[in-house]
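Standup notes, structure subgroup. Blocker cleared on the zinc ion input:
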Amino acid sequence: MPEGVIVKALSGYYYVKPAIDGADPVQCRARGIFKKKGITPLVGDRVVYEITENGEGTVDEVMPRTTELIRPPVANVDQALLAFSLAEPDLNLQLLDKFLVHTEKAGLDTVICLTKRDLITEDGQPGENTQEQMALEEVVRLYEGIGYSVIVTSTRTNEGIAEARAKLEGRTSVFSGQSGVGKSSLLNALVPGLALETNEISSKLGRGKHTTRHVELIALEGNGGGLVADTPGFSQLDFLQMEAEELSSCFVEMKRAASGCKFRGCLHQHEPGCRVLALVENGEIATSRYKHYLVFLQEMKERKRRY
Ligand SMILES: Nc1nc2c(ncn2[C@@H]2O[C@H](COP(=O)(O)OP(=O)(O)O)[C@@H](O)[C@H]2O)c(=O)[nH]1
Ligand SMILES: [Mg+2]
Ligand SMILES: [Zn+2]
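Run returned:
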């Protein structure tokens, strides 16, 4: 029986893309057996399906998942592409660090995509109302230094598009980022012929409206293939299911340093013999990252108190 991947789930139907390049998805119903077993097929699931008489099909078997994201609900994702615009809206490094906590927690490889390169000055200076005045080069150096891939893109000049495409090949990736940063535009540039709806930013609010409603995987044809989910992003970035110690381990450079802390379970605040604090002091760990860590730690504590 043929195999494929669920690329869309809508109104009780699952759209299964056959494992053949260029083939159109088959509209399928899930077998009743899944409901009995309490399995809900997810977008991203690799499945065995069967074509029925009317040209539709049935999903007969769901293969074991390697990963399972809850928000957005996608199975088998192995990579996150975090889209952050350099301007309109201004680059928000605190939000980027928050997204990174979530991709680390989910165990995903992360590519940071800095979009709208054409909107900042030639020498990479940020807009005036950026909270943290960090030039492009500095931002790239910071995150590459931690170990992340950073790609700078513009859908106006096509800068970085080929590089982004290469990163997506052969993998299942989720695109995440605030609305209005250019996710759909980027996908349109990456996939010839795709015409995702993009939206203009309301200049008053500095953010776009949500036009991406359901999760859908888009196939990158040719070369190594690959699937990409254009999603509104991790909708609720809260820290409810996280312990303080886990938070610090999601800052990977702190995690690496933590083995050098005097106390196990060190939260890197005021503990004596804290290696992280020493590295912040000597500049090996960026102040911005450490500051955001403390902000999130505080947020977590406040959350816990409220619930
Ligand atoms: N100047 C510039 N504008 C862009 C770029 N990419 C997207 N935009 C614009 O940013 C707005 C939001 O883009 P969209 O792709 O809908 O963002 P999404 O909400 O993240 O999917 C639209 O007005 C796009 O035309 C870019 O590289 N440069
Ligand atoms: Mg969009
Ligand atoms: Zn410490």
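Discussed briefly. The chain is about 30% helix and 20% strand.
Next: hand off to the docking folks.
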